[in-house]
Structures are given as C-alpha cells and as structure tokens.
Write a structure and sequence with these properties.
alpha/beta, Undecaprenyl pyrophosphate synthetase, six-stranded parallel sheet, binds ligand V07
Length: about 240
C-alpha cells in the first residue's frame, strides 16, 4: 500500500469533529474529546511506526477560549491525562514532545504538565510530536515580527530580513514545513493554523470525525500524498 520511501517528513493534523461525534451519539461533548485523546494515542504510534519524523497536532486554538467554561476546563485536563498514560510509550518509541503556542495564558497546572512532558522527552531522538495549544497562526506571525523588532533594536539584524531569517522567529523554527496537512470532519478550511508553514503543503480532507480517524485513514492520506507530484511552483 504506502511506499516505504517518500514518507512525508512532517504531517500536521487539524483534529476536528470531536463534539459532533459525541452529539450525534447522544453523548456529552466531552466524551468526544475523551475519545479524541484515544485517537491521538493511535495516530502518534502509527506515525512513528511509518517513519514520519514530525507530527503536529492542533489541540486548542486561541479562538477556543470562547467555548463554555465547563468544556474548557475539561480540555485543559487532557494534557495531564495524556502524559499519565502515554509517557512510557513515548519513551519506548523515542518520541520528543514540544509545544507550539503561547504558554502564558494556559492554567499554571497545564504549563507545568507540559514542561514536565517536554523535559522527560527532551533527549529522545525519534519523532518530534508538536502539540499546538493556545495556538493561532496570525498571533504567531505578529509575535515573530515583534521579536524581530526587539532584535533589530539591539542591532542583531543587518540589512533586509529574508524568509529564512524570519522563520527563525516562528514557533516552528528549525522544523521543516509540513509536507501534508490532514483535516478531519469535513470542513475545508485552514482556520488560522500554520499559515506561513503550509504555503506548499499538500492538503488532505476527510469527512470522518476525529474520534473515528484510524490507522487506515492515516495510510490513505499518506498514500494519496505519495501519488501527488509536488512542484513548489516550478513546472
Ligand atoms: C486535546 C484531544 C484530541 C482532539 C482535539 C481536542 C481535544 C492531547 C492533548 C495534549 C496537549 C498538550 C500536550 C499533551 C497532550 C490535548 C487539548 C485537547 C487541549 F503536551 N489531546 N488534547 N490537549 N483533545
């Protein structure tokens, strides 16, 4: 099925449809998020087995704070639930965890959980697992501009800034751009996710809700990616 060579180096996923999955089953929305964490477990394992080198998962956007407080509180408990059960497997599979997004607005406890997860996995040399948490792409770009201005004022920048120089100020500094973006649950939008980094990414959409996204769907996405011819604007 999927080819062993031409595995996408970096895959990004918008994990959409947890609430809808639950509501359609007559369950509370948080049941959808709970099942969504199960899917995170399987997609991390399967991606690492496939030889994907970086996986970026959109877990919580800067816009998601507008959800009901009860739902937000539940979501903010998920990083801890995730690490409690997954840390041993992350270590076995040599996975290094990282965060994209601004930590400051997150509850102290969540910051601590993520710092500990990062610290525990920092020497792992296998797949990089990025969680985009309190992430918004426009905010990321504005933050980069402001950090650049600070450096410029300190005289650390000489002449015009090019793309390579600018990218160093993004959360994804030193990480290659995603080769493949997957979005579940039928929405055909980017929704303020990695706007800079997705410039040349292949996009793959499915109607499947995130809690139902399985190894088969991941393999389908990678297979379709392998059939595409990437030109990066060239002929
Ligand atoms: C969340 C489960 C997956 C579907 C999308 C929304 C709900 C894993 C994490 C996580 C985040 C940081 C981290 C370790 C795990 C997570 C939130 C929501 C807020 F370091 N899943 N998951 N965080 N969902």
């Amino acid at each position: 099925m999927v080819l062993k060579d031409n595995i996408p180096y970096h895959v990004a996923i918008i994990m959409d449809g947890n609430g809808r999955w639950a509501v359609e089953k007559g369950l509370p929305r948080k049941e959808g998020h709970r099942h969504g964490v199960e899917t995170v477990r399987s997609v991390v394992r399967n991606s690492s087995e496939l030889g994907i080198k970086a996986l970026t998962l959109f877990a919580f956007s800067t816009e998601n704070w507008r959800r009901p407080v009860g739902e937000i509180n539940y979501l903010m408990g998920l990083p801890e639930i995730y690490f409690k059960s997954e840390l041993p497997e992350l270590m076995r599979n040599n996975v290094k965890v990282n965060l994209l997004g601004s930590k400051e607005k997150l509850p102290r406890k969540v910051q601590k959980t993520i710092d500990e997860g990062r610290e525990a996995t920092k020497n792992n040399t296998g797949m990089i697992l990025n969680f985009a948490l309190n992430y918004g792409a426009r905010t990321e770009i504005i933050r980069a501009v402001n950090r650049l201005i600070v450096d410029a004022k300190e005289g650390k920048i000489s002449g015009a800034v090019n793309e390579a120089a600018f990218e160093k100020y993004l959360y994804t500094a030193s990480l290659p751009d995603p080769d493949l973006l997957i979005r579940t649950s039928g929405e055909l939008r980017i929704s303020n996710f990695l706007l800079w980094q997705l410039a040349y990414s292949e996009l793959w959409f499915t109607d499947v809700y995130w809690p139902d996204f399985s190894k088969r769907h991941l393999l389908n996405a990678v297979y379709d990616y392998q059939q595409r011819k990437r030109r990066f604007g060239k002929v």
